[in-house]
């Protein structure tokens, strides 16, 4: 990553931030549509309750509200509250449920409006920027800018519309992150669990992640011990045996002793190579010498599947975060090469608020499952031990997307 790419106001950085914001707005539009549907269901249930026949629909409506809100919590990485009660009075007594009702109205209106605004800007940019390429093919009445405030009659007008499109592009790049933050703000404020719930969930989560960290540490120690015992130690034993044989053959058959010494040297070099491999598996030197994107570029170069690294990080994170991200990508690419049948893979790194987001996507056959023993459980444990989040989407037929979010403390 160059020095220019690390500047927050560099055009490439701003463009990537705008694209990321547009992606969040589009995903947020999905939850906004669900919020509208849940609101209509609530209104219908309330109307039926007034008529005396909607009481049986109340538990379903309550669960629907919580389900839609939990989808937004997952998107915003907010902790979930306890389950909603089945009875209306008990549910309304929950502060978290009352806030969910407020979020439902806010996100179903303002959130949907912000998403539609972002999509409109994107469509307007594509329409106006490409206007000179197609305006003469349409009827004279249709040759207008996206806003439709005048009709283009010659090439001068077409170029003017194109300039409008470029101006809209600049505005979009500047306002997209703001729109995404405005859309996420109600969810971050209204869907956060109560303080007591937050504390209890955090205690339970930290207890679980501490146990996972101890398990991951024990597994790592066993892996290192097995690598040293089965590989390096056996090589060194072979070197010792060969040196003893060469010592005994030196007096009676110098030629044979020379051959044995050559074999001992080869075994020693193999032991040294394996020892270096074990050391690199503990902490890759390239992470210390250079950066995480550089280390991942080296992984991608060695991967049998064509792999592209798309990294946009403003600076260095803690060593533990970079090591975890490195081994997540290493294990994921190993799975892609062995099991997916993919032709291409993409690794994306982004800095999202105070977290590092790692996304690995491949175009393979899909169907990845933690139960298949393909290393996904190890990835989850390593990530959760670092207080991170792990999400896997791998429908049959592909593609497979693995998303990991790690706190970077910045």
Largest sheet: 5 strands, mixed
Q: Give the C-alpha Rg.
A: 29 Å
β-strand amount: 5-15%
Q: What's the rounded overall pLDDT mean?
A: 81
Distance between the first and last residues' Cα: 19 Å
Oligomeric form = single chain
Helical stretch count? Answer: 12
- What structural class do the secondary elements suggest? alpha+beta
- Strand order in the largest sheet: 1-2-3-5-4
**N-to-C SSE string, H for helix and E for strand:** HHHHHHHHHHEHEEHEE
Question: What's the shape?
Answer: flat
Q: Any low-confidence stretches, pLDDT <50, length ≥5? A: 1-7
Task: Give the proportion of residues in helices.
Answer: 55-70%
Could you give the count of β-strands? 5
Describe the structure.
- The protein has helices at residues 11-50, 58-76, 88-92, 95-129, 131-134, 155-190, 195-252, 254-282, 285-289, 292-302, 319-340, 376-385, and strands at 306-312, 344-352, 355-362, 389-393, 400-407.
- By secondary structure, the chain is α+β, with helices and mostly antiparallel strands.
- A five-stranded mixed sheet has the order 1-2-3-5-4, with helices on one face.
- Strand 2 (344-352) and strand 3 (355-362) form a beta hairpin.
- The longest helix has 58 residues, at 195-252.
- The protein is flat and about 105 Å long.
- 26% of the residues are buried.
- The model is unreliable at 1-7 (pLDDT under 50).
């Amino acid at each position: 990553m160059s020095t220019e790419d690390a500047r927050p106001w560099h055009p490439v950085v701003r463009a990537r931030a705008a694209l990321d914001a547009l992606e969040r707005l589009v995903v947020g539009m999905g939850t906004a549509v669900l919020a509208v549907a849940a609101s209509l269901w609530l209104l219908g249930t309330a109307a039926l309750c007034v008529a005396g026949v909607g009481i049986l629909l109340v538990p379903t409506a309550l669960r629907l509200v919580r389900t839609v809100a939990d989808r937004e919590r997952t998107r915003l990485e907010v902790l979930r509250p306890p389950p909603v009660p089945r009875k209306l009075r008990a549910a309304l007594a929950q502060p978290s449920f009352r806030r969910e009702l407020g979020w439902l109205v806010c996100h179903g209106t303002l959130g949907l409006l912000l998403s539609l605004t972002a999509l409109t800007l994107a469509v307007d940019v594509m329409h106006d920027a490409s206007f000179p390429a197609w305006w003469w093919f349409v009827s004279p009445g249709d040759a207008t800018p996206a806003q439709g405030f005048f009709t283009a009659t010659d090439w001068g007008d077409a170029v003017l519309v194109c300039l409008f499109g470029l101006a809209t592009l600049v505005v979009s790049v500047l306002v997209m992150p703001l729109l995404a933050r405005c859309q996420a703000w109600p969810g971050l404020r209204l869907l956060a669990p109560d303080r007591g719930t937050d504390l209890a969930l955090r205690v339970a989560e930290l207890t679980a992640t501490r146990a996972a960290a101890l398990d991951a540490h024990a597994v790592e120690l066993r892996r290192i011990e097995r690598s040293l015992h089965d590989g390096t130690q056996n090589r060194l034993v072979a070197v010792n045996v060969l040196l003893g044989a060469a010592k005994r053959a030196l007096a009676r058959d110098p030629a044979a002793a020379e051959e044995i010494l050559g074999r001992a040297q080869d075994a020693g070099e193999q032991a040294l190579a394996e020892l270096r491999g074990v050391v690199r598996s503990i902490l890759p030197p390239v992470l210390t010498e250079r950066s995480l994107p550089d280390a991942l570029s080296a992984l991608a170069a060695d991967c049998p599947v064509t792999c592209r690294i798309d990294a946009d990080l403003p600076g260095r994170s803690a060593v533990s975060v970079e090591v975890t991200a490195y081994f997540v990508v290493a294990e994921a690419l190993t799975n892609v090469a062995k099991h997916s049948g993919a032709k291409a893979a993409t690794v994306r790194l982004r800095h999202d608020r105070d977290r590092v987001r790692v996304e690995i996507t491949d175009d393979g056959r899909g169907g990845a499952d933690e139960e298949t023993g393909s290393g996904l459980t190890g990835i989850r444990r390593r990530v959760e031990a670092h207080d991170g989040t792990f999400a896997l989407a791998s429908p049959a037929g592909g593609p497979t997307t693995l998303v990991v979010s790690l706190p970077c403390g910045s």
